[in-house]
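Example: ABC-2 type transport system ATP-binding protein.
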Amino acid sequence: MSPIISVQSLDKTYEGGFQALKSVSLDIQEGEVFALLGPNGAGKTTLISTICGLVIPTGGSITIGGFDTQKDYRAARKLVGLVPQEMPTAPFEKVIDTVSFTRGLFGLKKKPELIEEILKDLSLWDKRNNPIMTLSGGMKRRVLVAKALAHEPKVLFLDEPTAGVDVELRRDMWRLVGELKRRGVTIILTTHYIEEAEEMADRVGVINRGEIILVDEKAALMQKLGRKELTIELVEPLGVLPEGLDGQAITLSDDRRHITYSYDAQAERTGVTKLVTALSQSGVRFHDLNTRQSSLEDIFVDLVKAKS
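Written out as structure tokens, the predicted fold is:
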């Protein structure tokens, strides 16, 4: 099946010579939730803005639903909803009016039942007649989401959708993303909150310094690159590690009561048995063992460090 978004060899160089995107190639499949991760200045917003037609690329091509974003801009843009980090809205306009107006910008007929459904999903229905200027920052962010959904896009871009918002809105956004996915909407989000990617994404892409350094399914990524940590709780403080264990991925806590061992859970030999045996033979007594799987955040930090 053809991807709903296809980015091929995309470049963007701004006046002054700064290259924000470097030969980026990326395919997004219909109906998936794709999380784009990267540090500040990595190129996340530039990539999204270029795909949505807000930034003109220096080179390469983009298609959305088979439409070239340069040659068939209107057809491609009609398929896309964008929730930017910030966007000015008319302060005196009512919530319901600004959301309804956005639908009209795409040449679509009025559909009040849809607008009502969107506003209720985002807990905005009770404030539908409020001027935007009277809303809190979190509520204004909800209005941006409602505007992006008003024309029933097949693809929704969420650029840092929950940055700086309260926990309630973040949970509402997660719930909404799940519902949109069930309806078949393709969702691409950038986020600084790694737990959002872990919670919602099917696939994860990592961008750094304008280059895509990895794209993989979330589960496969964590399986291939994730490591496990074994923490051994000691009965008594330990002065130094037993002979032969120095130099390995083993650390002794500051209070000398915990040994931490990092290992590849997929390896044929993890080294756990060897470690426990060595401690027992050295007379080190322990009364508890705990393991922890690396999180997506751990993997992300390691990837960015390795490519820097």
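The chain has a mean pLDDT of 85.
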